[in-house]
From TrEMBL:
Signal peptide interval: 1-22
Keywords linked to the UniProt accession: Signal
Ribonucleoprotein as UniProt keyword: no
Identification of the protein by name: Oxidoreductase
PROSITE patterns membership: PROKAR_LIPOPROTEIN (PS51257)
Amino acid sequence: MRAFLTLSLAMMIIGCSQTVPSKPFSKVEIQDLFKDSVSIRALEVMEGSVAFAGTGGFFGTVDLHTGQIRAKQQRYDTLNPEFRAVGHTASDFFMLSAGRPALLFKTGNRGLMELVYKEDEEGVFYDAMAFWNEKEGLAAGDEMGGCLSLLITRDGGSSWKKIACADLPDAIPGEGAFAASNTNIAIVGDKAWIGTTEGRIWFTPDRGRNWEVFTTPVLSTEPTQGIYTLDFYSDQLGVAMGGDYTLPDGMDANKALTEDGGRTWKLISDGNLPGYTSCVRFVPGSEGNGIVAVSYNGIAYSADKGEHWKKLSDEPFYTLRFVSDTVAYAAGKFRISRVSFQ
C-alpha cells in the first residue's frame, strides 16, 4: 500500500506541474499482447499492471514492464460468468458479472477470488463499477423497481448494499446503461456521474448519498441509442459519447461536452466523426483538450475538446485506458493491445 501511495503522489505531482499541453497526436502504433477467444470490455490500471476481465469467466493482468499476461478463469457453480465491470483499491481487485445472477468478486485469501455480493432477480444487469477511495465504491446497473440499480460499499468492498429506490430519483422505464466498456461511471473527488441509455446523467456530489439527474442532447429514441461512455477531466469538464451500435456510422447527436460539472451539455462535432463510440478518454496532461474515442470502427482523436476529430486507426477495440500521456492499453474481441500515440 505504501508503494502504491508513493506512486500515486508522484503521479499527482507530475500532473500538477504539467504546464505545457501534450503535443497533438498524428498516428498510433499498436502492439498486440494477448490473443485468445475472450471478449474483453473491462480494463483497470493498477500499480505496475493493467487488470482485465471478460467472457468465459476469464480475468488477469498485463505486466506494464514486461508485457507478460497472467490469466485465470473464475467459475460459479456450473457458470462461467461474463465480466464487464472491474475496479480496484490499493489492496483488492474487483470484478462484476453482467446478467443474471449478478456476481461481484474481490480478491480473497491465497490469491483466490471471493464472492462478496450476489443478486438473482429477474431483470438484474450491472454495467460498470468504480471507486472513490480505498473504502467507498459504486456499481451501476439497469432500472429495477423504478430506479437505477446502484450498489455502494463503505468498507473497502467487503460488503455491498443496494440503494433503495425511495432514496433515488425516478428512472425512465427501461433506463439503464450499456455494458460496453466499463466507462458508464466517471469519478472525480467525491463526485460521480453515470451515463444512461436515455441520454441522461445521474449525478452524486457526495459519494452516493444524494442524487440528481441531468439531461443531455445525446440521441436516445431507440433502445440501442444513448450514452455508452463518459469521462471527466476535472469536476467541471466532461465528455459523453455513444450513438447506436447497430448503426456504427451514425454521427448525429452522439457526442456532447459539459463545462459546468454535467448540469448542461452541448453537442460537439455533430454530424461528423466519430460515429458510434464505446469508450472515450481524455488524454492525460492535455488540459482537457485531447480526447480519444474507440469502438469496433477504430480509434479517433480530437485535440480541441471534441470539436474536430481525425481517425488514427481502423483497428477495432471496445475499451481503452491511458497509463501515461502517450501510452494506453486497449481491449476488444479476442485481444489486448498496447497503443502508443505519436
